[in-house]
Amino acid sequence: MSKELAAVTVIGAGLAGSEAAWQLAQRNVPVRLVEMRPGVKTPAHKTGGFAELVCSNSLGADVTTSPGGILKRELRRCRSLIVECADEARVPAGRALAVDREIFSRLVTERLESHPMIQIEKRVVEEIPPGPAIIATGPLTADSLAESLKNAIGEGFLYFFDAVSPVVTAESIDMRLAFVGSRWGQGDDYINCPMDEKEYYAFQEALANAERMPLHEFEKNSPFFEGCLPIEVIASRGRDTLRFGPLRPVGLEDPEKGKRPFAVVQLRQENRSKTLYNLVGFQTNLRWPEQERVFRLIPALHDAEFVRYGVMHRNLYVNAPRTLDGYLRIKGLKDIFLAGQITGVEGYMESTAMGLVAALNMVALLRNRPFPEWPPETAVGALLKHLNEEPPHGRFQPMNMNLGLFPPIPQKIRERTERCLRYAERAETALSKVLPAIEQDL
User: Fold this and answer.
1) HEC assignment per residue over 343-363
2) Which of 82, 86, 218, 404 sits at a 20 to 30 Å CA gap from 76?
3) What is the pLDDT of residue 56?
4) Considering 248, 280, 309, which residue would you say is the last residue of a domain?
5) HEC string of 205-226?
6) Radius of gyration for the chain, computed over Cα atoms and rounded to the nearest angstrom
7) Where are the alpha helices (DSSP H) in 317-396?
């Protein structure tokens, strides 16, 4: 171990923790990587290997005509361990980056175990350790550590369950079939998507009979499901339950027809730039293809672009705008950073990116340098902006990489592939501004 700097404790050897440990070690920062498995098992993991993928072998799209592909390109430029090992373990999957999960985990584990700057410890961490430390424990964080985190950041700022509605892009909403306004004329906070009687009952029947996602065993007895019903469950309890629930039309008048609609789906602004909107009250456990099929029966959403699907699952994460300082550091704790899904991002690559950022910020802190500033035009910078921005309405929710997180481009481009390419070109230029700070210790 180097005597130059104190060892950084990295808790958790998932994708984010593995990436953070690697980036630190590559910059000659000694690392103590602590992982509780295989000594303590989780309900989702099957092995004791690092960076185990527990849901799918696909790491998402890997072309620059997709937001996920833009993020992967940036991670490759930053010499990401996770992406490097994924490329080596790659299996055919068209435009997606899919891997042999066993080979992928073995590669990551071998790289970390053989690195001279990394010391591996297999044990449970019960509370936030003395700094410097990076906590990257993910949704299955040990209860004792979660309690310690809750005490450090404050009651009400640590969430244990994700129940969110789908999010669509503003430009994909057909405003010819929608109108702006709040109930009883109290402002213009919502986009309202009216439905007539025939449209509503076709939608209700499709929703009630749509295919649902099976729950993990450890989620089935969650008390959160009892107090937060999926919209498809509400729909299955009667033909009109939605009209007296989340689709109630009271207090709203369709200006086009001059009367109250039969039913209304309300969309609420998701970010300050008004590029994203969520379907109010549409927390759901439907399979993702079913969400697109059924929710596009809403007339104004017939061509909706879904950038986040509704989910209901266990997911430990913090209210990032309230608890983190913009650099993934817990407010009030000078050398404790969070990384991965716990920061409020969704997805394997997004979690990996936050592991990279946390490590680079830790290096800057230890060497008394300014933190790297990621332009919001980059994919990584766009994710960080989401974590730093208070939502205009409602509770902060995790988000995966999507075009709506980027600052809008001046041109109006309807074709999505061409639009992605423009964002990718701009991201590449913006990334060049931060690369020197990232590469100076390599």
Assistant:
1) HCECCHHHHHHHHHHHHHHHH
2) 404
3) 72
4) 309
5) HHHHCCCECCCCHHHHCCHHHH
6) 22
7) 320-323, 348-366, 379-388
Strands 133-135 and 336-338: parallel
**8 A C-beta contact, residue 401 and residue 67:** yes
Cβ neighbours of residue 398 under 8 Å, at least 6 residues apart?
Answer: 162, 164, 315, 317, 341, 344, 345, 346
Same domain, 20 and 102: yes
Own/partner contacts of 188-191, CB < 8 Å, gap of 24 or more, are: 189/268, 189/269, 189/393, 190/266, 190/267, 190/268, 190/280, 191/266, 191/267, 191/277, 191/300
pTM for this predicted structure? 0.81
CA dist., res. 319 & res. 330, Å (int)? 11
Name the region of 328 (left: φ>0; alpha: ψ -120 to 50; beta: rest): left
Give the Cα separation of 130 and 123 in Å (integer). Answer: 16
Instruction: Enumerate the H helices of 11-92 as residue ranges.
Output: 15-26, 67-77, 81-88
Reduced to 3 states, what is the DSSP secondary structure of residue 32?
strand
Query: What pLDDT sits at residue 391?
Result: 85
Which residues are within 8 A (CB) of 436 and not within 5 positions of it... i.e. 6 or more apart? none
Q: How many other C-beta atoms can be found within 10 angstroms of the C-beta atom of residue 38? A: 12
Q: Could you count the other beta carbons within 10 Å of the beta carbon of residue 334? A: 11
Q: What is the DSSP secondary-structure string of 122-133?
A: ES---SPPSSSE
Residues in the chain with pLDDT values less than 70: 1-4, 38-48, 55, 215-228
Query: Looking at the structure, do residues 264 and 344 belong to the same domain, yes or no?
Result: no
- Would you list the DSSP string of 90-129? EE--TTEEEE-HHHHHHHHHHHHHT-TTEEEEES---SPP
Judge whether 400 and 348 are in contact, CB under 8 Å.
no
Tell me: do 422 and 335 sit in the same domain.
Answer: yes
Interatomic CA distance for residues 295 and 287, integer angstroms: 12
pLDDT computed for residue 42 by the predictor:
52
What six digits make up the tokens of 181?
A: 């306004």
Q: How many domains does the chain have?
A: 2
pLDDT for 389: 92
Prior bond to 132 cis, omega within 30? yes
For 434, the domain range is 8-161+315-439
Tell me: do 332 and 281 sit in the same domain.
no
In this structure, what CATH number is given to the domain that contains residue 271? 2.40.30
pLDDT at 377: 97
Strands (E), 296-351: 306-308, 311-318, 336-338
